[in-house]
Design a protein that fits this description.
The complex is a heterodimer. By secondary structure, chain A is of the alpha/beta class. Chain A has helices at residues 27-40, 61-65, 70-77, 94-107, 127-135, 150-165, 169-183, 195-205, 213-217, 249-252, 284-297, 314-323, 332-337, 354-358, 365-377; strands at 7-14, 53-57, 85-88, 113-120, 224-227, 229-230, 240-248, 260-269, 306-308, 391-398, 403-410. The mean pLDDT of chain A is 96. Chain B is 7% helix and 42% strand. Classes of the chains: A alpha/beta, B mainly beta.
Chain lengths: 411, 127
């Protein structure tokens, strides 16, 4: 697929992702906060009213907050009526897909400048209710009534993966350890401490000491959520929002000397139920979406300097780095165990802490990945900066892989 | 044989009456459980009902410790993905198991239809 013209990000903002600090704020408050930060981040200045349309990823403000028709509400709250405002709902891939829609709208020539982002206000509900609301993104007839939850679906993938590749949970633990280490360097992350720090703090409360991360992760302080996945294999429940200012390449340099281009993007769907997949140890939609994005960008997996992938559960990062072509089948977890995906490794994955440590306010995640690539490729990622990052990739997954969206970003 | 439409409702009615019914594409032979209105493999719309026996092998599983509201109080419970004889795969609760260590991918299972408040459910037991 060729584009009529190129598309760039000229500004990016996000709230911190967290489970407590946003108490008293609603989804609209969070989204406005992220948009204002994105607008203020534009190097040569940007007025909100220059935006011609708004694309918003949001999974379920309806269930979480009792608020539907969110797109128009946001347009109103940004003071941007009568501009068109469009909500995209593709479960956890909502704002990743919104980015593609925004890119298509700008590439087509319909708009020169749009706002795209996402938000989710999740903590107004108890964990079991959140589990129930998230499970609506799985098959409500054939998966949820027989007990599957999202942790459960990914846990099932993990059992199939362990069997097929003779691997084990220790590889998953390595991903959790790495992502927490990265999150500790990210001022926007939900968790900003590494696992040893958390082990010390939690241990003190329970009169327990741990000699290393693994001893803690195997302990009762890290209980099973869905066997074989434990608490520290799962992303937390967070509130948050993220936003980007997206411009056509014709005008991008009016706003900044260093726009970050959306060089390629792709999207694919797969069977809705996990049980209908031919293979349980890969997400086929990732492979297809990535091949579209690589082709459009004219790059191959080896060209990617840094990537944010959708580690809603540790096993999901294993599948992602294999499906994206970074590592051979069966090697994704070992790559983390050997430090190859660490900040100073050959292929840094989730430098911002990933969903695991940064948090996963569902609708905000895809655009938050773009935020990280914007910072990394401009050399503005501070303590978590990947050296010489020129080409970045984001992979955002909806549910158990029925939707996957991939973008390739470059300077 | 059966004249019912290939809908989610028909599948449920069969299940309530104790039968596990799939449908098969007359063009390519692909088997769909639960039944579908269009063959996802070839796009065929000429389909026929087919009764499925409940024996199969476990392809993936979990033991859920944090349940959704509707299953509150039942945790820990096991659920999994089963490949049935004849090809189709389906999700189902695995009865009488509370620990992940007590199951294996590849284990043989047998289907059983259990009636619960929210309707009949396909469940499995380790053989």
């Amino acid at each position: 697929m060729g584009l009529f013209r190129n598309v760039a990000i000229v500004g990016a903002g996000m709230t911190r992702f967290h489970n407590r600090i946003h108490a008293g704020k609603t989804g609209r408050d969070l989204f406005v906060e992220a948009v204002l930060e994105a607008a203020d981040s534009v190097d040569k200045g940007f007025e909100l009213r220059e935006a011609e349309a708004i694309f918003i990823g949001n999974y379920s403000s309806d269930s979480f907050e009792g608020q539907g028709h969110t797109a128009a509400l946001i347009a109103d709250w940004l003071g941007l009526t009568p501009r068109p405002s469009i909500r995209v709902e593709d479960a956890c891939a909502s704002s990743g897909v919104a980015i593609n829609m925004a890119a298509l709208a700008v590439a087509s020539g319909a708009y020169d400048l749009v706002i795209v982002g996402g938000f989710e206000k999740m903590t107004g509900k108890e964990t079991e209710e959140v589990t129930e609301i998230l499970a609506m993104a799985a098959d409500a007839l054939y998966e949820v009534p027989v007990g599957f939850t999202f942790p459960g679906l990914y846990a099932a993938i993990a059992t199939a993966y362990f069997k097929r590749y003779c691997s084990s949970w220790e590889e998953l633990a390595a991903i959790s350890i790495k992502n927490h280490r990265n999150g500790a360097l990210n001022e926007k992350a939900h968790f900003q401490s590494d696992i040893m720090d958390m082990a010390r703090r939690l241990g003190e409360r329970h009169n327990m000491t741990f000699k290393d991360e693994l001893e803690f992760l195997r302990s009762p302080l890290n209980p099973f959520v869905a066997y074989p996945l434990r608490l520290f294999d799962c992303c937390p429940i967070s509130d948050g929002a993220s936003a980007l200012i997206v411009a056509s390449s014709d005008i991008a340099k009016r706003y900044t000397d260093t726009p970050i281009y959306i060089k390629g993007f792709g999207q694919a769907s797969d069977t809705f139920s996990l049980h209908d997949r031919e293979e349980l140890t890969e997400l086929k939609a990732t492979r297809i979406a990535a091949s579209q994005a690589y082709k459009m960008a004219g790059v191959s997996p080896k060209d990617i300097d840094v990537a944010d992938v959708h580690d809603c559960f540790t096993i999901a990062e294993v599948l992602a780095v294999e499906d994206l072509g970074f590592f051979p089948r069966g090697q994704g977890g070992k790559a983390a165990l050997e430090g190859r995906t660490s900040l100073d490794g050959e292929r840094p994955i989730n430098p911002d802490g990933g969903l695991k440590a940064k948090g996963h306010p569902v609708g905000a995640t895809g655009a938050a990945m773009a935020y990280e690539m914007f910072k990394q490729l401009r050399g503005e990622a501070g303590r978590r900066q990947v050296d010489d990052a020129e080409i970045g990739l984001a992979q955002n997954v909806g549910a158990s892989g029925a939707t996957v969206v991939v973008q390739v970003y470059g300077r | 044989m059966e004249e019912k439409p290939f809908t989610t409702g028909s599948y449920k009615e069969f299940l309530e009456s104790g039968r596990l019914m799939a449908n098969r594409c007359r063009s390519c032979g692909d088997v769909h459980l639960p039944p579908r209105p269009i063959c996802p493999r070839c796009g065929g719309r000429s389909l026929e009902w087919m009764e499925i026996q409940g024996r199969g092998t476990l392809q993936a599983f979990t033991v859920v410790h944090v349940p959704p509201i509707r299953l509150r109080g039942r945790q820990p419970y096991a659920t999994g993905i089963v490949k049935l004889e004849g090809g189709p795969r389906i999700s189902g609760l695995i009865l009488d198991v509370k620990r992940g260590e007590d199951m294996n991918v590849g284990a043989e299972v047998e289907g059983v239809i259990v009636r619960e408040e929210d309707g009949a459910k396909l469940c499995f037991r380790l053989v």
